[in-house]
Amino acid sequence: MRIPRHIGVAAAAVASAVTLLMGAGAGDASALTVDPSKFGHTASLTAGVLSVAVTNSTARSVRCQLSVHREADSTQLTTTVDAVNAELARTVLTAAGAANLAALRSSVAAGALATLWTDKTIEASATSSASWNSGRTDSSYVIYQDCASTDSLLGLPTGVGAAQVYTVTGTGEPVDAPGSTGSLGSLIPGL
């Protein structure tokens, strides 16, 4: 049986695309360049309200995770960031690697005081903002930020991305604010 020419050409094109996507060998270029500088951020904390803005300075849209954590979690989050970035930088993200990446991101979200974004899309050269009214007197939090561009066909990380952790310091909710606890004046009338 003879295979029509257009089917043979299509099959060759698919094979070439798979080779380009997956790489021909273990030493090929990374599937994703880890570059935190491509995802600049600003953060502030005023009277217990945390505001964060993330700028995607790449030429591709990205999906971002953003969560707020206790300052005491900083060391553990730094270790997680290293593991996430190692997975993102793999030459080929395998099914096991994708599962590991999902598990790492899930563990970060599980330990968060607040999850501000899960797979939030930020378009190329755009900025997106989030805020959280903590209702807490804490004056410092750690932010976990994880952005990566993805292949539109397979949904795997490709191009550029990075996980990072940074601290935001400011003022917590005032102790005598309505609904807060900790002020003797709110507990004992007349003080």
UniProtKB/TrEMBL annotation:
| Cleaved signal peptide residues | 1-26
- Where is the region Disordered? 172-191
Its name, as the record gives it, is Uncharacterized protein
UniProt keyword annotations, A-Z: Signal
